[in-house]
Design goal:
single chain, 285 residues, alpha/beta, 6-stranded parallel sheet, two-stranded antiparallel sheet, 9 helices, 13% strand, binds zinc ion
Length: 285
């Protein structure tokens, strides 16, 4: 029974965030794409104990405390190919929306669009983009609209080219800044170009941040730099499956297409998963 079927191992080059710097990722470091499968979901089911209704009632006080503390019982987890898989009986037909390289020019507008549509997302921010009081205000506003703020390093450098000390600065300075602005340290870390190192993995672990690459994204490719083309591919790609982790960016064309993308995903039956329901190292075992 315990079969993990990785359907697609990458002839795709999913080197995201490549529009700031050319990715030029060595073959063995490229993020491969794999589809989440139902078999994998079954594994997750088996590992989790079902919560009976009576228990849920008994746990209400605890849940309220959790809600007040800003945490809720996790319903999903991230698997080894960064797909979102349900714990127990949560709806498997979900996708995770992520917006990287924020807040450049469109992040706040994108957050407002998503809010209007009642769609959740993680905004992965770069520290160098929040160096002005105006941008600080934007981060606070995005956070207050209910979105998760993730760490995408200070300068969007390729971490594999930096010393341990430099990597530490790239990552920790962003957590410190975000904590000052929102009162909360990021729970999710996305390395620029998806390129982690042993050092960045260790820092993320110490900071209790979940490492997160993605399943697919297109908006840094020239052919998808229009509203029409990005809206089409994000919804019609064959990589769109249960639990897909969608990478988008703070870009003009993605901003313009965002509403259409969310509506298109919903028309295909996908819910946008609330990142606060994803299990991280901060949730108790
Ligand atoms: Zn990026």
């Amino acid at each position: 029974m315990r079969t993990l079927i990785i359907i697609l191992i990458a002839s795709f080059t999913l080197a995201g965030c490549g529009d700031q710097k050319p990715p030029s990722i060595p073959k063995n470091n490229q993020e491969s794409s794999a589809l989440n499968t139902d078999d994998h979901t079954k594994d997750m089911d088996r590992q989790e104990e079902k919560v009976e209704p009576e228990q849920e009632i008994d746990n209400n006080a605890e849940k309220n405390e959790e809600l007040e503390a800003g945490t809720v019982e996790p319903k999903y987890m991230v698997n080894d190919v960064y797909s979102i898989v349900p714990i127990s009986d949560a709806n498997p037909k979900v996708v995770l929306l992520t917006i990287d390289d924020a807040p450049d020019q469109y992040a706040l507008e994108m957050a407002k669009t998503l809010k209007k549509l009642d769609a959740s997302a993680i905004f992965f921010v770069n520290g160098h983009l929040i160096d002005t009081s105006e941008k600080e205000k934007i981060i606070k506003e995005i956070y207050e609209l209910g979105f998760e703020i993730g760490n995408h390093t200070y300068s969007h450098a390729d971490l594999t080219t930096l010393s341990a000390k430099e990597q530490e600065k790239e990552i920790l300075s962003v957590n410190e800044k975000i904590e000052v602005l929102t009162g909360e340290r990021p729970k999710f870390f996305r390395a620029p170009f998806g390129k982690n190192t042993d050092v960045s993995k260790k820092i993320a672990e110490n900071e209790q941040m979940l490492l997160m690459n993605w399943s697919f994204g297109y908006d840094w490719n020239k052919e998808y730099m229009t509203k029409e083309s990005i809206a089409d591919i994000m919804v019609n790609t064959e990589l769109l499956v249960n639990g897909a982790n969608l990478l988008m960016h703070d870009r003009e064309w993605t901003n313009a297409a965002l509403e259409e993308i969310v509506i298109g995903l919903r028309e295909k039956g996908y819910e946008t998963v609330d990142p606060s329901l994803i299990k991280t190292q901060r949730d108790p075992e």
